[in-house]
Write a structure and sequence with these properties.
3 strands; disordered N terminus
């Protein structure tokens, strides 16, 4: 009889723990489903298995359909390298040397019509958006990390973009996060500040490289 009472007492605890696990799993699944719907992607299906090295930019149009003016954005990446880079792939400026199944742009998620969303944005809303941080809040919490489910197993953003004079990132308490910024030759065109964009190039150091000795 005593044993039965103990089992009955523990049963709600077991059920409660089980529900938490189910709830956690459900939250991750719900998060992933929202990502799939909003971005027209599949979390489980790999679309471009044969062309993982081919980026969406490689499908940029090279001719203006109205004026028939020809452009060559391909030279941005495909050039004759300089020492110590001996690679020369200038031929890819004039030919699509893709696997057959990659001749058609697989990045269909990039063609989502956002006309209604753009039309509904006012100038004041746009200015308000670009003038506030969408990465850190006033308490210096990383917003993209807070948006993830608590039991998210994937990458959780942990860089604070708070670099010291040597390029090492530090959290609000002054601890090194393992991220380091480095100088690089700016990529022409889209990512230039003159075209409304700036960026940082970072590397995540292995723990061995975050030590002085």
């Amino acid at each position: 009889m005593k044993r039965n009472i103990i089992l009955l007492t523990l049963l709600p605890l077991f059920v409660g723990c089980g529900n938490d696990s189910i709830s956690d799993t459900s939250s991750v699944q719900s998060y992933i489903q929202n990502l799939e719907v909003e971005n027209n992607i599949s979390y489980e299906k790999i679309v471009n298995t044969r062309g993982a090295y081919i980026t969406s930019m490689c499908y940029t149009k090279t001719m203006d359909e109205t004026t028939n003016t020809v452009f060559n954005p391909c030279y941005s990446c495909h050039t004759k390298g300089q020492i110590p880079n001996y690679y020369n792939d200038t031929n890819l400026q004039i030919e699509y040397n893709f696997p057959a199944e990659m001749m058609k742009n697989p990045f269909t998620n990039l063609f989502k019509d956002r006309s209604n969303q753009v039309a509904s944005m006012t100038d004041s809303e746009t200015l308000e958006y670009v003038r506030e941080s969408n990465y850190l809040n006033s308490e210096e919490d990383i917003l993209p990390a807070l948006d993830l489910p608590l039991d998210w197993k994937g990458y959780r953003p942990d860089c604070y973009f708070n670099f010291d004079d040597d390029g090492f990132d530090q959290d609000p308490k002054g601890n090194y996060t393992g991220w380091r910024a480095f100088r690089y030759y700016p990529f022409l065109g889209t990512f230039w500040p003159t075209n409304g964009s700036t960026d940082d190039v970072l590397i995540r150091l292995d723990s061995l490289f975050t030590q002085d000795k």
